[in-house]
Design goal:
140 residues; alpha+beta; Aldehyde Oxidoreductase, domain 3; 4-stranded antiparallel β-sheet; 3-stranded antiparallel β-sheet; 2 helices
């Protein structure tokens, strides 16, 4: 399979593929807050990177800002263990992913002012994401 496709099974005998579309229009505008982190490329957010980032943001902005998460993992990725023969059904659940499109907003922040502390924390979060992202504001 080419890059950008994830295989999943609807039933035992029928294999389907899911393709992540190129660009996102409905999720590309700020709804809940004044600032947000916008993705510049399409890809997949893994639960192992999304949940710790959310916890980090909630901890940093406790009492300062309200954090909104726009994406939750919704697809299951399965994997068979190493050195196992072919066949014998589908592998065990490995992780959860959230397919995201370019232009989608992952996190939004309200009840806050864009200060140097907010910018420094958001730079850390954007560096930890596996997809290119940038900080956007609703005040432009």
């Amino acid at each position: 399979m080419s890059k950008g496709y994830i295989a999943f099974y609807k039933c035992r005998t029928q294999r389907r593929t899911y393709k992540n579309k190129e660009y996102s229009l409905p999720s590309s505008t700020l709804i809940f807050g004044y600032f947000g982190i916008k993705l510049l490329t399409k890809g997949f957010l893994v639960v192992k990177e999304l949940i710790p980032l959310k916890r980090f943001l909630m901890k940093e902005f406790k009492g300062i800002a309200k954090v909104w998460t726009r994406f939750l993992p919704q697809r299951v990725v399965t994997r068979k263990p190493g050195e196992v023969r072919m066949g014998k059904g589908k592998g065990k659940l490995d992780s959860w992913i959230a397919p995201v499109k370019a232009g989608a907003i992952v996190f939004e922040f309200s009840r806050c002012v864009l200060t140097w502390k907010l910018r420094s924390v958001l730079k850390i979060v954007m560096a930890k994401l596996s997809i290119k992202s940038k900080l956007i504001t609703a005040l432009h």
